[in-house]
Each structure stands twice: as structure tokens, then as C-alpha cells.
Fold:
Amino acid sequence: MNTPQTLLHKYFHHAQFRPGQLEIIDAVLAGKDTLALLPTGGGKSVCFQIPALLLGGICVVVSPLIALMNDQVTQLTQKKIPAAALHSGLSYAEIDQLLEQAAAGEIQFLYVSPERMLSETFLQAVSQINIGLLAIDEAHCVSQWGYDFRPAYLKIAQFRAYLPAHTPLIALTASATPAVQEDILAQLHMKNAAVVKGSFERKNLQYHCRLSESIHHTLIQLLQQKSSSTLVYCNTRKQTREIAEWLQQNSISATFYHAGLTQEERNERQIAWIQNRTRVIVATNAFGMGIDKPDVRLVIHLAAPECLENYYQEAGRAGRDEQPAEAILLVTPSQINNLLGLAIQRFPPIETIKKIYQDLAAFLQVPAGSGEGSYHDFDLSVFASRFKHDVLLVVNTLQLLEQEGHLRFSSSVFLPAQAQFTCDTAQLRAYEEGYPDSANLVQALLRTYPGVLDFRVSVYETQLARICRATPEEIKQQLKQLQSFGILDYMPAKDSPQIYYLLNRATADFLHINLDQYHARKKAWMVRMKAMVGYIENKTICRSRYLLQYFGETSSVDCGVCDVCIRKQQSPLTPKKFARIAEKILQLLEQPKMFVEIVQSFPAEEQAHVQEVILFLQQEQTILRNDQNEFRKR
Structure:
């Protein structure tokens, strides 16, 4: 007889559950709505996958990202568990086929975006599908007071009305403050729910925050001290490339990753890093969701995220194997001021929002009163340049328009190639006789993609290339040739940023923005931002305890290994010690030196104090910094 323990061993190859997992599973099996809060790397997917397998029927999993859905579907199918994802990359014929399989009970896990969940096609199919469990992944997206609010998540409560009353719901998140937790329960109508909170404490993870005048050199210093797998986070795509090249120049194996790369490039770089063929991957926050790499020993941030939720999730990608790991946040003094000044850019004036919305419609050539349900390729840099908008301001405006339910902006949409024959079988045979070089491809399309004569279906050039013993580029050229002869309607794959209109485009005068919600979200954002700045400037509270308190968990025990705890263990910076360090710094600066050179001239146990003295001497203008970023005596 199957039990949670036997399934854990059979499918996940673990001997025992992690803290909180079994309690969550038991609550779901008892038929209770359940809010599960587990730390990053705490094994959330097990908490709905095991009860779903025991309850029977299909588990519908609501997930915000196509990449995340595809990763989980791949992991389940590798375990011989039937799973599929319903997303925008599928044609109508493929959606119908997938829903028919679900109705026949041939799928055990069906992943769906919140936008697709209330589509007419899906709702019509639901009555024919035996749904045993509804799982909401990344449930913090349902809360307007959270850091990653998605309006479509608010519609999940409506979807529950289409399910039998006894169908349990499990909502899972790794980062929700007490206020967000309460909002999740309210928005999803989870009455008398079991709320199971695993501790957010990561005992194997050392948190450090370092103030640095030269982030580049400090990064090199850190990586030279370690030789393990490392993830470095940057704020911009340009910076990921520059940092990776800087590391390569310093003989450190590194590559960069961001959503602007092709799908093939992203896959290659991700796999090389996961397999430890590349030591360091330098990435934007587009990297990390759904990636299972347990042996990351070091996560370094070269700029502070906007909130502690983001930082906790990204830092938590270190040490998932529960072995010692470090999360280091590097900041310059100017970054703190920049963070506090982001409010105007993050929440632009209403007139600016309307102006960018209108310019976007002109750029994409979307007339007023049309556009609902349409995808558009979107080059952010070209748009910002043409209409003279700041890039970050545009991104923030698009996020606000998304929160208001007007559109969706995704920098990492992958839409497979689409194809449909536009002629009858007699014309197709005549074409094959006239152009025998294309006959193999025509037959491969017919055999591999049922329905291609009648419907637009997703096709994969790499798969066709293997069948036809050709290169993907040759297949693409042949598909274009079929299209030029009027034989095939072919739409190449899209791997570029996309704008998706949820509503018809409105004129500026009729663009609806809920001002009360706008100001409330701005206030909530400022609270989160100030907590992030407080974390950076904190010099008295253990960093692990600071994070735990933010997420509503109390602890009276210091971790003993973060920079704050280590500083407490050091002898105090007395006037005598200050004078001795300052004298040695001035002696060293008989010749200009970099910040890192000065610090490394002192013993490791004194280096925190040395940084304090350098910053004081600079503020007093006793020492100055030149154009080469070197310090010298005044």
C-alpha cells in the first residue's frame, strides 16, 4: 500500500521528509485547504506532488512562468509520472488534444497559467476532468501587498466554483510576510485552512553584507578565496556580460545569462553550469526559478534587490544540499542612496504612465479598440530610444500596467514555431513530385504532427532536423520555401520579449488606473524598500535573525557566522586601534593603492575595522580617490 513515505523513496529517493513537509502532506490528505510556507530549497513541490498521487485524479497546478512549468513537467516525466503544461506556446489543436488526455485520465499533473485557467476552453473541459487537488505555486503572487503581485492570481477563487466543493487547495510560497500570508488566505477564500510554516532559517547558510568601494576587485578577491560553484547576480544584462568577461580575464571560468539570449544559448549555459563545466554564472534575476543545483556554495549579489523577499529567494539558491554555503551582498555607499531614490522611478506619475502606454501602442501599431489577446515582439531598448524614455521607467510602467490588468510583459517568452498546410492532399502530392528535395520534410511533418493538414500546430525544427538528417538551419530554409510556394503557413519560433494585450487598447483619456490601489502599492513598496536598506545598514542584529523577524518568525539565537555576529566577536575598534590602523593606511598610501590592496595588507581579523577606517578617512578628506579608483593621501 502506498504511503507518503513509500512515494518519497520511490520517486524522490529520499529516506525521510524535511521539516514541515509531512505535516503539510497530512493536512492536504485530510481534505483541508492548506497554506504551506517553506524556505527556498525546502522542497515545496513534494508537498503537493505526493498527496496528489495518493488522492488520485488530476492535480491542476497554477504556476506563473512557462519556464518554471516546463522544468517541473520535465522532472515529473523523468520520474515516469505523466505531466503536461497548458500555455501560450500551444496551438488550439494541441490544447484540445491535451485536454482530451486530461479528461481520459492520461495525465496526473496539469500545469496551467492563471490567465489560461479561466479561459472558456479550459472551463468547458473542467467538468470532464477528475480534479483531485488544486495547487497554487508561488502563492505570494496573489497578494497585492507582496513583491510580485499578478492580477490573474486574483481569479483563482472564481475557478474554485467550477470544482467539487470537497476539492482541497494547497497554496505554496517560500517568501511571504505575515501581512501577505493573511492576504493569500483571504484572496483564495481559504476558510479554516491549515497554515503550516516551516522555519525560514537556513542554518547552513552564512549571510554577509560588505560595503565596497570597488566591487570588481572585491568579487575577484572572493572568488580567488573559493573554488566552488558560484552564482553572481547583477541588475542589468549589460553588467552580466561585463562581469563575466572581467572574470574570464582574471582566469576564472565564467559565463553570463539573461533573458535576451536565445533559448538555445540559455540552455547551453545553464547546463554547463549545472554540470560544473562552468564555475561561475553571472545572471540577472531571470535565472534561478526551478533550477535544481544543490551544490552551489556561493551566491553573490553585486547590487541590492528591491526587497528582502527577492534577496532571500535568490540567496537561498546556495547550499540546497544543506552543506555550508555563503550568501554575500556587495554594495557601494552610493547604492544605498540610489535605492531610497527609486520611488519616483518605480511609481511614475499617472500622466507618464499614460504617455508610455500611448507610445507603446504607436510602436506596436495597435489601433484603439483592438489588440485583446494579441502577442507583439517588443524591443525595449529600441522603444526607449525612439520615444526618449528611460529604460527602467518603461519597465516599471509596464509592470504597473500589468498589475492594472491591461497587458503582460515578459522578457523570456518562448513560443514554438507554428505550421499548417494550406493546400489539399492532391496539391501536396503534386508539390512533392515537382520538388523531391522537400518530400522528406513534408512526410516528416505529416507523420510527426497529426492535424497539421487541418490546424496550426507547434513544430520543432531540431526534431525535424533529426528525422530528416539535416541541420536545423536547413529545415528552417525548407519551411520558408514551402511557405513561399503557398504550401505551408509557417511562423518561426519566437524567443524575444513579448507584449501581450489582455484588453483592447484604450485611448489615454479612458485608460483606467485605480488610484487608491496605486498609492497603497506604493506605500507597501516603500515599506519593503526600507526593510532592504535596513538590512544593509544593520550592524547590531544577526542577519539570519533580521530575515526571520521580517518573515514573522522570532529567534533569540544568533547564527554566529554572519558578518554582524563576527564583528561582535571581534575586539572593539578603540581609539588606540583606530590610530594604529589609520597610521598604517597613510604609510601605505605613499603610493596610490586600490581599496582591496589596502584591506588585504592587514590580517583577516582586522579587515572589517580597516574598511571602517578607510571610509572615515575618505569622509574627512584625509585620503582621496583618483580617476583610476585608487586612493592617495591628500
In short: The chain is about 45% helix and 15% strand. The first helix runs from residue 4 to 12. The mean pLDDT is 88. Residues 417-491 form one domain.
